[in-house]
Fold each of these.
Amino acid sequence: MNAVRTWPSLILEDDLKLASDTAVLPLVPEDADIVYLSVSPFGCLPWTYENLALSRHRAIQGLALASVHNADWLKLHSMSGAPAILYISERGLDAWKQATLQARRFGGAFDVFTAYAMKDVNVYAPHQPVFCESAELQREDLRRNAALFNQRLSFTRTPLRPFAAGDQTVVRYKRQTITVEAVEVNENTLQWAVVDVAVKDHPDENP
């Protein structure tokens, strides 16, 4: 990120491939600060004491929060994962630099803290991801576990499900079943609100 001097600038992880044979990027929204060209189903609850008690600084599968911006674009409100980030503005780059510093300070992952920061900048993703993880470029130990390997590849190949204010979903984290609802906290800005938490009764059940 410190090497970025021109806009836009694209930073890619080293295990990606194009999600299809060709890639054509639609006209980027005028207010965009950051564009994600890859996706992940993982997202985060807002950074509050109550939510930290549930999940600490962790991303949870199923909590990627996006809404429809237009026919070409989704607006991202919470999503972890950072294989392909297009920095559109200095404001966006600075926000992600600050997220890096916070991740180091609190001992969490970079992409968790960028998920927290999505409420402060304008982050978009195309409806169809441009990049996905390449099967051929994954670690050998991951490739030996077929079930985990295929699940991992599906994360970046599956388009995000968009949500609107009032929509609910249920996720599982460790022994907890968490029901959340998308709420509008500012114009065109959503975040998760925890509706219910159920904990398994028996400690010997699978997490």
Amino acid sequence: MISESLARTTQELASVRREEWLDAEGARLHLKRTKKQFERLAPSLPRHYISERSILYNVRELDEWLMDR
């Protein structure tokens, strides 16, 4: 069950355009924040864990988060 869910999530991520996903530095730049500001904001941002060491941010979700603030 978990492996099927992971496979489905991987397929969904692969089907989304690559430019819609940002690493932490890309998300920081997109939100126009300093490193210190981004570090404070990061825990409240919508994020997707790809592995324990890799987090991706979806541009649309970041924009929605920003508009809701």
Amino acid sequence: MLRLREDDAFLANHDALLATAPHDDLRLLSIVIPAEALAGFAAPAPGEVRPVVAASALLAPAVAFAEQAAVTDSHPVSGFGNYYFERLLQEMVLGVAVEGTRAPRVGMTADVYRDAMSTIIAQRSDPHLSPRGIADQLKISLRQLQRAFRARDMTVERAIRRARVEHALELLVDRTYDGLSIAQVGQYSGFSGGSSLARAMSQEGKESPSAIRRAAQA
């Protein structure tokens, strides 16, 4: 049984609606997102309840946005707008998950690779994301960060590139974004444009952006 105090927040991995005690004064905001949205982040194990640090600067904005989303009529919004509305909410929840649970739990050490991957996935669309910036956010040295990735036969630069390519692939195969040019897909994924996107996809062993889009449309 989980006892909640006022303004408590937590992450939980569950596949059923959350049961709550029938108190008249209970006000519970529940945000349900698919598990894939936490890909790359150490999501709670099945049945695990993980508290979110109340001091997280992202918690209050995420709650306010979710409350607004709950009362907004989705019909006047285009399919394109609805997708971004949902995507933004997922990104905010992911930000809360990363920022609000980053402090190591009692008896556990920080997982540099996990936290770095969480940061990369949350900020992959930022063209200025860099290994140095990630290290600064995690409050570790660049050498520590690089060592954590070398232990997995990976570099920070490649992890950033791969995360951006995966995001670009999502946009290329989703028919909602057929109106975006290849250059725009590249820019929305953190690249400078279509050429750098195509080059990164080739380095990751993928087909060209135009070929992937044609296959999706067919």
